[in-house]
Amino acid sequence: MVYCGPLSKACLPCRKRRLRCDLRDPTCTPCARAQLKCSGYRDTNALRVKDESDAVKRRVHARKSMKVVPGSLVVPMRSQARDIFYHDYVVGSNKPFDFLQTFHSSTSRDEHLDRTVDAVSLAYLASQRHSVSGVAEKEARQHYISAINYTTVALQTFDQAKQNSTILAILLLDLYEKMTNKIATFGGGWAAHLSGALTLVQLRGNEQFNDPSVLRMLTRLGTNLLISCVASDTPVLPNLITLRNTIAAHSTPSLDPKWLETDLIIEFARLRQEIDKGLLANSEATLALVELDAKFVRLGMQVPPTWQYKTIQAGIESSHQFSSHQFDSFHHIYPAEHVAQMWNTLRLTRIVLNEFICFRCLDTYGRPRSDSNLKTIHAHASRSIIEMASDICASVPQYIEDSPITLPPPSTKIASSNNLPKHDTRISPVAPPNPTNHLPCYRLIFPLFVVAQSSALPPAFREWAIKELHFMADYHGIKNAMVVADMLESDQKKPVWEVYTMLGSYAFVC
Fold first, then answer.
1. Chain segment 159-218, per-residue pLDDT in tens
2. Exposure on the CB side of residue 95, measured as CA atoms within 13 A
3. With the CA atoms of 336, 340, 341 and 342 taken in that order, what torsion angle do they form, in degrees rounded to the nearest 10?
4. Residues 6+ apart with CB under 8 A from 17
């Protein structure tokens, strides 16, 4: 007899996905969260144990007679890691590190850059595929230590230190730190690499700014350093402002909404520092916050047509569309993922900013102040938070589902949400989750957290955000989506930027 352990009563979907089935009636919790059709539970008493000895013997003999697959056909983990990293960071739709193609190749002789690419690729693979995460993390750490040693040697010689490959290696070492180190300490690894790279850039002179690829690399350096400052609540470095001004003098960043958005985030970071230090009176701080919010509004109104999105009212509907009797039901269609990312960054920043405004309009007992002007400001800020949260929710359906939502043909009539009958919004996916949807879903976790944690929003937003996070965890297998959902359900009061760093959002939403 061949004993394979006790039989499981779990339903077929849970057995296939190796999840713990709670055997609830009429459907188990994992299937309900993933919106899968539960197949029902097995009666283990009705299953007979068969003598499989002969069958096992036949399988053993069959294996012995099989031809051995040449080792060259097995794709090494390092190659898999590079492929997925290059797809999502270098050549994909978002391409935050597209300049890597210019400075690195398979025949590159820059050993420090080569080791760094392997370290960050393996770290990224570990974060995306939990089945190999342990092995990938260990190998990534080994390559990281090797990359540090080779980069240290490269920094010993001035000619080698100022090479593009060295700047890029340092930038990728910082990316590795953000993927693996979830504590935003500016003085530690979170900014040590970037501060060193900024020093090298200053030593290289102004000729470097004439190369478009170098300009994109230095823009990425400035953006990543700014994120480190914001996430660790550290003042923005003057050298960073100097770098951005020099880049602006050699390019046309005024045409890039992301660049303009970054300028406003720098202004927000500075204002937050002044408020925390008590340099502004309450009325001055409130007025400055209101004026900054108005700048974000103007930015949203001035984006070029290629950065705009379509709003689809209920009728051509997604099962993941936010729906409440208090709000109209709609979702967005974005021309590209980086466009959705820019808009959601603007929205979540405005939510945090308007929460500051609301707080400043309250008295010591948490009630609106009697001043009529402050009451008006408070009401406007509250409406802005609801508007931004609704738009974040509307961005989810396009990227959480495997079947992409597309615009209807011109002849399609879009119904009004008031004329639609009530219906069940659960879905039954017919195919396994698409791995290419993993990263777009991951980029939604932090915006959804910002929505769910806001006390200025009705409970329906929190409940819906938690539901979507559970779907990401159960259907797409995103572990951190479950971590954030559990955090929200247990009502843990976590600072926004602490969760940002815990998610490694710098690395996955760059």
1. 888 899 999 999 899 888 888 875 545 445 556 778 888 888 988 888 899 999 999 999
2. 10
3. 100
4. 30
Lowest mean per-residue pLDDT among 155-164, 321-330, 375-384, 391-400: 321-330
d(CA 506, CA 501): 7
Token representation of residue 356: 């500051």
Q: CA-CA distances (angstroms) from residue 468 to 441, 465, 478, 506?
A: 10, 5, 12, 22
Rounded CA separation 472/494 (Å): 21
Q: Cα separation of 284 and 293, whole Å?
A: 14
Closest CA to 425 of 316, 321, 324: 321
pLDDT tens for each residue of 178-194: 888 755 454 455 567 78
Q: Is 327 helix (H, G, I), strand (E, B) or coil?
A: strand
Tokens 């080791």 sit on residue: 115
Rounded Cα–Cα distance for residues 370 and 170 (Å): 53
CB 257 within 8 A of CB 296: no
Kindly give the pairing relationship between strand 330-333 and strand 310-313.
antiparallel
The number of angstroms, rounded, from the C-alpha of 349 to the middle of its chain's C-alpha atoms is 15
- Identify the three-state secondary structure at position 180: helix
How far apart, in whole angstroms, are the C-alpha atoms of residue 408 and residue 40? 37
Q: 219 CB contacts (<8 Å, ≥6 apart)?
A: 247, 253, 259
Cα→Cα distances 115→45, 108, 119, 147, Å: 56, 11, 6, 5
Contact status, residue 211 vs residue 161, Cβ threshold 8 Å: no
Burial category of 328 from C-beta neighbours within 10 Å (exposed 0-12, middle 13-18, buried 19 and up): middle
Contacts of 250 (CB under 8 A, 6+ apart): 209, 210, 215
Q: Tell me how crowded residue 204 is: count the other CB atoms within 10 A of its CB.
A: 16
Contact between residue 220 and residue 196 where contact means Cβ atoms under 8 Å apart: no
What's the DSSP call for residue 415? Answer: P
Residue with tokens 């910082």: 174
Cα separations (Å) of 113 from 73, 203, 218? 27, 20, 16
Token pair recorded at residue 370: 């009697």
Name the strand (E) or helix (H) holding 330. Answer: strand 330-333
Q: How many angstroms separate the CA atoms of 436 and 233, rounded?
A: 33
Rounded to 5 degrees, φ, ψ at 368 are: -55, 140
Given a contact cutoff of 8 angstroms between Cβ atoms, the answer to whether 233 and 240 are in contact is: no
Q: Which residues contact 297 (CB under 8 A, 6 or more apart)?
A: none
Amino acid 141 reads: R
**Separation between Cα atoms, residue 434 and residue 484, nearest integer Å:** 22
Q: Which residues of 121-133 are buried (b: 16+ CB within 10 A; e: fewer)?
A: bbbbbbbbbeebb
How far apart, in whole angstroms, are the C-alpha atoms of residue 488 and residue 445?
12
Contact 137, 126 (CB under 8 A): yes
